[in-house]
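User: I'm preparing a small set of examples for a lab meeting where we compare how different chains pack in three dimensions. I only have the primary sequence for this one, and I'd like the structure in token form so I can line it up with the others. Please keep the answer compact; I'll paste it straight into my notes.
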Amino acid sequence: MIISELHLKNFRNYTDLSLNFHPNLNIFVGQNAQGKTNVAESIYFLALTRSHRTHADRELIAWDSKEMTVAGTIIKKNTTVPLEILLNTKGRIVKANHLKEKRLADYIGNLNVIMFAPEDLAIIKGAPSVRRRFIDMEIGQIRPVYLYDLMRYHKTLKERNAYLKFDKTKLDANFLDVLDEQLVEYGEKVISHRQGFIDNLTKISTDLHDKLSQGKEKLDIIYACNVKQDFAAELKSARQKDLFRMQTSVGPHRDDLQFLLNNIDVSNFGSQGQQRTTALSVKLAEIDLIFQETGDYPVLLLDDVMSELDNQRQLDLLSLVIGKTQTFITTTTLDHLQNLPDKMAVFEVKSGEILEKNRD
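Assistant: Understood. Below is the structure token output for the 360-residue chain.
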């Protein structure tokens, strides 16, 4: 899978930009705050209809505009698929093959991307909510039904939490039972999706981490599911506590992940180098996992991370992805990059202007 063209209109600092990409490697070089990351962000947005940097959609629209457009042409399995997202203050319109999609779940999956950025260290050492978002975004790319099940779960969870705040003397226990049944129905589906994803991710990332650490470390990923055995029974048992606290205390909305290196929790006790390598192993594992699920390798976005890696990790990373995935690298300089392939494109980014400097 590759993205051959990208068109931006009023996206961040790009008023009107059109780019043609190399199918192998594309490097964007420029000083900070010139717009390199905005290009990577736009590709991520085109794939997932969300930014990896902000939850506020208004930040994506140029300050003097009311709407923006991100469009691109995707080539996968000898099929060309034009994609387009129009975003304004009222919401977004998404199109695939020039046809408007009514549900985002029907759109997501046309373009699969893996993003690795400095903030991805938060997957290892950040809050549980960061890890849940990571799980949700990655499963959603390869199993659109997951997004539907997750949406229904959160909708029911919101209704249940709102009902728990009602006047306790007027609560209808039967209605609460109905909400619990719905929460369990969709929650168990979410848990099943997550468990399968983590099992597969662990198998691949364990092998990759063994290579990246030269066999010195064994990586394990543990799905710390909040539901221990029986969701329905645990939810019922927690009802009085939930009524007192006015929120739902049991369910996959409280799930987490644990990352172990040689049986030691790397999130709390690992060095920064170990945390960085663990994050890299997980991200690289996603590439093969998406290939297993879809039969196509995703697009890889490496946003300002190469300078964070030592020479050996850079070489290991490039050897594992170049020639396998279409890769985009943003960097302030080419000086620290080694063993680059002959076939690639280099773009210079300065003040929102992009000039192609080299293409082989």
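A couple of notes for your slides: The chain has two domains: 1-112+296-360, 118-290. Residues 109 and 355 are 30 Å apart (CA to CA).

User: Perfect, thanks.
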